[in-house]
Amino acid sequence: MTRDLQFMFSRRHLLNTLFLASASALGLSACDQSSEDKTAQNKPELLLYCGITMVPPLKKMAEAFEANTGIKVIITQGGSQDLYEALKFSQKGDLYLPGSTAYYDKNKADGFFTQRAFLGFNRMALVVAKGNPKNLTADLAQLTDTKLSVILCDPKSGSVGQATQKLLKKVGLEEAAYKNATYIATDSRRINEAFKHQEADISINWQATTTWEANQPYVQAIELPDDLAQPRRLEISGLSFSKHPAEAQQFMDFAASAAGLKIMKDYGFFNEAEWQAAHQK
């Protein structure tokens, strides 16, 4: 099987998995509950479609929100476009958080998005193995070096892939860099896994992921200038077909509160200048 066919199969499998996961979360969560759990069942459960990169802070928010309100937030994770295709197909769920607002622009004609709330910024960086053993720099042309193992993200699935494609096209390296890639990953998490398994020398990924405890032993970021890699706003949106719009708005309000934004900062989605600016508004 060729690499392209392998990728097409894996992406189709991922979409099926996302749909089944969302259906299971909504349809099966009440199964096998004893009578003593019925009081808890009166509280709605929210389904959030969340881009891979934002899952750790959103899990922490969901835990705090449930502790305060009794409302459980179930998180379905994946590449931002794959998640959109899953929610579009199922038309079930309550909230959507992609890796950039470009997904709202791209899909707004479908009419599924309602109110949105700002949660921070995603910014791209070159990512190398911990300690930078190859002595790599911020030069994007390194992505075309045949002596390096280059892992890039698919622009059709993950938000970092879409951002990577746009950046490489801007500097005239899109075709050469993708042709030189050892393989194409589906999302930011799989890029980091490539470094953990010593399969990668260099990649482009969201910088925030390099600060997380689970990834720090394996990766480090080489920052790119803002004129090349503009920070991308992160916004969470309600969904027009939500059966619990009031509760979804309640979660969005918590996520966008000072407490929620502090969680986002702790996971690398604000630098100090952005954090100060957010608090001045």
The CATH architecture classification of the largest domain is: 3-Layer(aba) Sandwich
Fraction in helix: 40-55%
CATH topology of the largest domain: D-Maltodextrin-Binding Protein, domain 2
- Record the strand order, biggest sheet: 2-1-3-10-4
Record field, number of beta strands: 10
Strand content: 15-25%
Q: Describe the biggest sheet?
A: 5 strands, mixed
Global morphology: globular
**Name of the CATH class of the largest domain:** Alpha Beta
What series of H and E elements makes up the topology? HHEHEHEHEEEHHEHEEEHHH
Assigned CATH superfamily of the largest domain = Periplasmic binding protein-like II
Please tell me the overall pLDDT: 88
**Class inferred from helices and paired strands:** alpha/beta
Cα distance spanning the termini: 54 Å
Radius of gyration: 19 Å
DSSP summary: helix tally: 11
Number of domains: 2
**Which residue ranges are poorly predicted, with pLDDT under 50 across at least 5 consecutive positions?**
1-13, 26-36
